[in-house]
Amino acid sequence: MKNPLIEIKNMCKSYELGGETVHALQEVSLTIHKGDFVSIIGPSGSGKSTFMNMIGCLDQPDFGQYLLDGKDVSDMKDHELAAIRNIKIGFIFQNFNLLPRLTAVENTELALVYRGVGVKERRQKAEACLEKVGLLERMHHLPSQLSGGQQQRVAIARALAGDPPLLLADEPTGALDSKTSKEVLQMLKDLNQKGQTIILITHDLEVAKEATRVVRIHDGHLFENGGEWLESSRSNEDGDAKYQN
Amino acid sequence: MNLVEAMKMAMRSIKTSKVRSFLTMLGIIIGVASVIILVSIGQGSSQSVKDQIGSLGTNLLTVSVTDTDAVELTDQTVASFKELSGIEDVAPVITGRVSAKNGENSTQVSMTGTNSAYLSVRDLELSQGRFLADMDVELRQKVVVLGSDTAETLFQNQNPIDQAIQIGGTSYRVIGVLKSVGTSMGTSGDDVIITPISTAKRTTGSTTISTVYLKAKSEDAVERAMYQVQGTMTTTFPNQSDNYSVSNQEDLMETMSSVSDTMTLMLGGIASISLLVGGIGIMNIMLVSVSERTKEIGIRKAIGANRTSILLQFLIESVVLSCLGGLIGIGLGLGIAKLIAIFSSLTIHFSFTITLLSFLFSLCIGIIFGVFPANKASKLRPIEALHYE
Fold it and tell me: From B304, which residue of chain A is nearest by alpha-carbon distance?
């Protein structure tokens, strides 16, 4: 069997908050293969965001090993991490995080700008990605001239533009209504069907269930089969309700 | 990411906030413009002083006595100057202030008692009549040559030649009028009465010669003539070198230009303070811009911008701001200086070096004051920047 895309072993992370040490991640291990569609579910304060920062190479663990595409990123330097983020990961954020002063196509090609791709090539690539999300005719609009769903689609196009092996979506539907949420999720599912590895982070069970594999994070610990734990058969149990909203 | 990309990003960010960018540049614009205006005025006045001194004739040597009690120049000394091989002509001068009258018109004027050589030694020209002759000096003739302004004051539109003027109750005959030489270093060369030295000794009551003008044989002989004159002075008045000075026009020119160069430097220095203040303005705005765009920096970092790219982006933005300000300042400075030259009597002298220097200075200011905010931006941690609201 080929090497996994992500291999996390015994990852620990703690930080100081108001004089108290918070153990956000405790001995977390996770393996994700190429082509997987994994959702990570957990309530706020569970360590979900910290875990996402780790996977996204935005932060580094205190202990443990993180192999991304076969490379150990746990003690890389700043500029090496920047290069990893640029090449290996496409981010999709809850609040889209588009640069407000750049047009849709300029936002889309941003990763390629930092990769040093020539003007013509990156413009072609960006247009192709916008076409994939169905926004080619709005490529010269500013984010403020687009609806929330359209902005998120631009963000997906931006994440795809760099051809990253991993798509990391942090609450991609959090700021959208249910109809556009469905569209966005469908788009992610379609991408996964074409072989794109996707990690979806959410607190919403309905959203998490769209993925092929659900893991749950709770108080800094990671549990496989989060979906089963959250099955409706157990919905009357205590503590379940908070994952349902 | 290459420089062209960083430049494009900077230009876009400047374009999207035009008013703020303009206000940021204003300090640099004013600084550069005032450096250029003040320095071109300073250099202009220095140039015009040099031109005026040059027009006085470069063959001229001057012996001026500061303490007439210790150093008494006599006719013999003056005569001995004339013996020197490098000297062509000698004109001793006695000066005093007198009041001259012609009927109703009167004026306070400086009287110069000298000899016939004065005209050629000082490179003057007559507009009417004749100059003093040797006979006038010898016979103590009561004749005068008037400066053009004095003639104008005393005679208005009349022809002054052969008319009489009253000086201290005595009548003098006008034999000539000088051509206008203009004002040089604050004294008018046209407000003057020239009379034979022998006559002046009586009229002004002073017998001491305070100044002797000498004309060297040629421009090349000026140095040699100066040594000879100095030699004569040293032998005649040993150990008195503090009480007289021998100078030529070049010395005078050097002194004057060092004075005006100092003035130019001072003006330029004052103006560069405003450039510095402009630089601090840029730093201030860039710091505000960094904290305002923390989120943007976070997004860019998440997408893969490394520290260098962010540093470059902000640094180039401040450099572009200051360079743009510098260019506008140069345009404004040159324009205003030109207007000053047209609408006032000041002479303006543009200097390419200063223009280039002030531009480079504004560039340096952009870099120096841009480094701190740019470094701050580049050091932001991506997660914190990303979650900054």
Answer: A86
Fold of the CATH domain A36-62+76-214+223-243: Rossmann fold (3.40.50)
Helix (H) or strand (E) segment spanning residue A63: strand A63-68
Terminal CA-CA length for chain A: 39
A58 → closest Cβ in B16, B305, B382: B382
- DSSP letter assigned to residue A4: P
Supply φ then ψ for residue A20, to 5 degrees: -115, 140
Q: With beta carbons under 8 A apart, name residues in chain A contacting B304.
A: 82-83, 85-87, 111, 114-115, 162
Residues in CB range of B322: below 8 A, 6 or more apart = B25, B28, B278, B279, B282, B362, B363, B365, B366, B369, B370
Q: Do B306 and A78 touch (CB under 8 A)?
A: yes
Residue among B1, B12, B298 minimizing CB distance to A113: B1
Tokens matching residue A81? 């991490």
B344 near B44, Cβ under 8 Å?
Answer: no
Q: In chain A, what are the domain boundaries?
A: 36-62+76-214+223-243
Q: How far is CA B244 from CA A133, B95, B199, B209, B233, in A?
A: 95, 17, 25, 12, 9
Reading chain B (389 residues) residue by residue, the pLDDT tens digits are 578 888 888 888 888 888 989 988 998 999 999 999 988 888 888 888 777 777 666 788 888 888 878 788 888 888 888 888 888 889 999 888 888 888 888 888 888 999 998 888 888 888 889 999 988 888 888 999 998 888 888 888 888 899 899 988 889 999 999 988 766 555 567 888 999 998 888 888 777 888 888 888 887 788 888 888 888 888 888 888 888 888 887 777 788 878 888 888 898 888 888 888 888 888 898 899 888 889 999 999 999 888 988 998 899 999 998 999 999 999 999 999 999 988 887 888 888 888 998 899 889 988 999 999 999 999 988 888 888 87
Prediction pTM value: 0.71
Phi, psi (degrees; rounded to nearest 5) at A150: -65, -40
Above 0.85 for ipTM, yes or no? yes
| Angle between helix A78-88 and B294-303 (nearest 10) | 70
Single-letter residue type at B66: T
Domain segments of chain B as ranges: 3-52+255-386, 89-215
- d(C-alpha A124, C-alpha A131), whole Å: 10
CA distance B324 to chain A (A): 22
